[in-house]
Design a protein that fits this description.
Blueprint lengths: L4 H76 L7 H15 L4 E5 L3 E2 L11 E14 L2 H14 L3 E11 L12 E14 L4
Antiparallel strand pairs: 1-3, 2-3, 3-5, 4-5
Length: about 200
């Protein structure tokens, strides 16, 4: 079938409409694809922001737990008298009380002047100072267990943190007879450690 000029003129309008529809469809497709890509980018950014917020919340919760734990430890130390000035007289009374309760023989000691704690590798931070008083003690004992009990009591009841530096135990040379007498002598070195807030410069 052969189309004439009149037929072609009649087809111009439908052809133009069809072309317009094709172009409109293509435009809609590209617009929809662009919108989809933007939506994906927005979703990815939102997911990243959500992950960052969750990470910050987790970090804040962990810091809060650490602060609470540190505060509880500080309060426990303060309750024991370890925070603040050294309570040397209270410590002396505690030694006497333990000696009498444990029925020990002789407990002799000397306490050096308090000074800054200088343990190797130890470096306190902030405005906190760790102070130590060196104690040299001689104990006459019946059994090794007496020494362990004495140190345990002193660590729990003393108004300072007790750091045992050394303990040498020797057996007494003259042991015998029916009289109850010490069998061991212990030469110990302790550090009495307290925590003090440094004065601002």
């Amino acid at each position: 079938m052969k189309l004439g000029r009149k037929d072609l003129k009649r087809l111009r309008l439908p052809s133009a409409g069809c072309l317009a529809l094709i172009l409109a469809g293509a435009a809609c497709y590209f617009a929809a694809d662009g919108y989809l890509q933007e939506t994906k980018k927005l979703a990815a950014a939102t997911s990243a922001q959500r992950a960052e917020v969750q990470a910050r919340l987790a970090s804040a919760n962990e810091e809060e737990r650490e602060i609470k734990a540190s505060l509880q430890q500080y309060q426990a130390l303060a309750a024991r008298g370890i925070v603040g000035e050294e309570k040397r007289l209270d410590w002396v009374d505690t030694v006497t009380a333990i000696k009498n309760e444990r029925r020990l023989f002789n407990v002799n000691y000397s306490i050096e002047a308090q000074k800054d704690l200088d343990y190797p590798g130890f470096s306190p931070g902030g405005d906190v100072k760790f102070m130590a008083s060196r104690v040299k003690m001689k104990l006459q004992l019946l059994h090794e267990e007496d020494l362990l009990n004495f140190i345990d009591d002193l660590a729990r009841r003393g108004k300072s943190y007790l750091s045992v530096r050394s303990c040498d135990v020797l057996r007494e040379s003259r042991v015998g007879g029916t009289t109850l007498a010490p069998r061991l002598q212990a030469d110990c070195v302790f550090d009495l450690i307290t925590i003090r807030h440094g004065k601002p410069a």
